[in-house]
Here is the input.
Amino acid sequence: MTLPNPEQLLPEMAAALDLHLSSHRIEQPRFIGIRTGGVWVAQALLALRGKDEALGILDVSFYRDDFTQNGLHPQVRPSELPFEIEGQHLVIIDDVLMSGRTIRAALNELFDYGRPASVSLVCLLDLNARELPIRPDVVGATLSLPPEQRVKLLGPTPLALEYKTLASAN
Amino acid sequence: MTPIDAKRPLQLNDNGQLRHFLSLDGLPRELLTEILDTADSFLEVGARAVKKVPLLRGKTVCNVFFENSTRTRTTFELAAKRLSADVITLNVSTSSTSKGETLTDTLRNLEAMAADMFVVRHADSGAAHFIAEHVCPDVAVINGGDGRHAHPTQGMLDMLTIRRHKGDFEKLSVAIVGDILHSRVARSNMLALKTLGCPDIRVIGPKTLLPVGLEQYGVSVYNDMNEGLRDVDVVIMLRLQRERMQGGRLPSEGEFYRLYGLTTQRMALAKPDAIVMHPGPINRGVEIESAVADSAQSVILNQVTYGIAIRMAVLSMSMSGQNAQRQLENEYAAEEQN
Here is the structure.
């Protein structure tokens, strides 16, 4: 199965996002990309929107629930949020949605900055492997993979998707 | 197959990650840089409305202080709390040891309280190392200063201060001034600067307060302070350790200040944008002039803030290394059974 081309998915996603925001009467959304792939997708989406909108960057390493198993990510970097969170309508953007645990970590982190009015989720790819009740509001494409297979986003320009097979332990 | 490597440094796990933090001796440059990078991220956490992340939630950190200290104890406590750990602080100098309990017995009792980490400060060199060797293997030990040997978190917070204010270590001249002989901070700083590639490390002090064998640290030694301070980027002042001084090493404090006190005039010999550091507590008028300590070049209070971030980095990285080691050992055991 060939993977979709992100550059082709993005215009549709931008249109769907527009629709989502207007139907929820959100006039001033605050965009937040999750490091690293989510930031690339967010930058591409903001470029398509063509407005001068600030982008927040979130590094969820300190909030992951697999710390006791996997430890600290060695390349953790500071989160950068150039706007208030309190009372704002947030749009979280990530590249690949799988278990939903990254998004849970992101939500936990964002709530430490304040109480947002709402949070929406945009994902380039949904792998249909949710382990938590977390669903995207806007999604580029949905596909199902065999258990040992993953997808990785390459970027930032051009964006491309690539298969990755996990080195299995047994 | 279980890799048993007697030469593997005690403070690293089989993957080369930190599992105890006892000394900067033998730690590779990449690891020191990783500590600094992680601390940079924790600095940002300290600037938030909620200054807390859930990394060590459910873990218990036990600060065991056999020697008094205010700054190190409180910043370790704050660091552990900001990582969501539960924290107990024991001033052992005022508790059971004064009733005759041995070091190992005190530790067994703390282990029985299911502590996951010990932060140890002790007046004897090597105490933290001894404890790391003798506690149960899952517990991480952090050295909060042992005798004249090492104060690695102070060393790393000094490196973070230098990197944030002066940038690339490979272009810097750094002077360490004062009572080098009694200073574990000096030793940790020399090791860290050398590992991080600082080409010009100068050590300035009277002959009576310089240890023998300083050459092994790759430093140049100056007895004349005016000569040593010329064109440096960073001046690290040390506290004159009056409590460790036993007669004969110095004629008087006044004499020391006249020869090695950091005054405004002397500071003018360094580069115009040089920074002044001091591990604290500062003795105004003994090793540093008040006007210098309070000047725009002084980053002494920034060091305290950076200290919390460094301690958060070291606590979380050691816990992470311990967890990884436990997993590895489970895998070895599973392989042996197959």
